[in-house]
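step=predict obj=Putative hydroxypyruvate isomerase n=213
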Amino acid sequence: GDREAGEMGLAAVPGRQAAFRQDLATAVQYAKAVGCPRIHLMAGRLPVGTDRAAVAGEMEATFIENLRYAADLLAQEDMIGLLEPINNRITDPRYFLNTPHQAAAILEKVGRPNLKLQLDLFHCQIMDGNLSRNLETYFPLIGHIQIAQVPGRHEPDSHGELNFPYIFELLESLGYTGYVGCEYAPKGGTLEGLGWLRSYWESRGLQDGGTSK
């Protein structure tokens, strides 16, 4: 979408289906060029001045239509489409897709195996909490995990609500083998901000890069 115009994705925005398909085709070309097999299909925002309940039905129908189109296109490239709930309490009050429950219901209606849940634990904690049960419940749908501490959205070892060593152990026990995306704002520089990862590796008897000593 047009970020300068206040858009944040188009997949659920009525009347923007043609633009969504055009942008998706561009995204696929970029993904192929960098060897990335997953694309985040952003739902988009409620139209300005509209009531969420009043437009929810039309936006969901648009979302489902676009997701089926995207899934078929991505299947041709052996790619996966991801749906990420973004909290509407702090980050984006007008974003359409807000909870893993909503995303799971939409994924069931779409019915395409190459569409998955992108679960950002920052957003999930703000909207619902109950992370252990949510991870267990929605694990079969998860295609990617993202992390940031709550509420500051900084490094996992920064002061906040979430116990990331426990969460990482839970992901391992569930059998998660994918990447964990570090979608946080470092308090300092990038390298300084990765100090938590070195400490975590050391606590597990690993060296930088995750190799055994």
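step=describe
Strands lie at 38-40, 80-83, 115-120, 142-147, 180-182.
step=end
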